[in-house]
Amino acid sequence: MSKTIIHTDAAPAAVGPYSQAVAVTGTKTVYLSGQIGLEPGTGELVSENFDAQVRQAFANMQAVIAEAGGTTANIVKLTLFLTDLSKFAAANAIMAEVIPEPYPARSTIGVASLPKGAQFEVEAILVL
Q1: Model pLDDT, residue 91
Q2: pLDDT of the residue at 126
Q3: pTM of the complete model
Q4: Distance from C-alpha of 87 to C-alpha of 84, rounded to nearest angstrom
Q5: What is the DSSP letter of 38?
């Protein structure tokens, strides 16, 4: 896969660990369903703690990515869903630990609720 980061000063700069846009070439596109902070063995939320849910959601996402034959470097687009946008900075910090630069394109959406009472969900698009 070849990634080209698209950036223009004619649009606002990224306000977190993401790129304005990403152009890719590759052989296979993978669309990952949303992952929340469920423990794989129990199907229950890892914790009521926001950071723990974010870390587990990203770990679940990484497991699906590995099964698809990729790594987090293959992500070209992420969508984050938060039930409390005041925790945006915490989600950004954890994402920056997990996702390598150059960062993928990303959207963050505040939602009223998520399955199983989760506080965070992440979905991804990869090009392998």
Answers
A1: 98
A2: 92
A3: 0.86
A4: 6
A5: B
Extract the runs of DSSP E, i.e. beta strands, from 60-113: 75-82, 105-110
Q: Quickly count: other Cβ atoms within 10 Å of residue 17's Cβ.
A: 21
Q: What is the pLDDT of residue 31?
A: 87
The residue written with tokens 């296979």 in the block is: 28
Domains annotated for the chain, with CATH where assigned, are 2-6+29-127 (3.30.1330.40)
Is 127 within 8 Å of 31 (Cβ atoms)?
Answer: no
Provide block-wise average pLDDT over 10 residues at a time, the chain (128 residues). 84 82 81 92 95 97 91 96 98 96 95 97 94
C-beta separation of 125 from 75 below 8 A: yes
42-51: which pairs have CB atoms within 8 A and are 24 or more residues apart? 44/116, 45/116, 45/117, 45/118, 50/84, 50/87, 50/90, 50/119, 50/120, 51/90, 51/94
27, 94 in Cβ contact below 8 A? no
Across the strands, what pairs with 40?
none
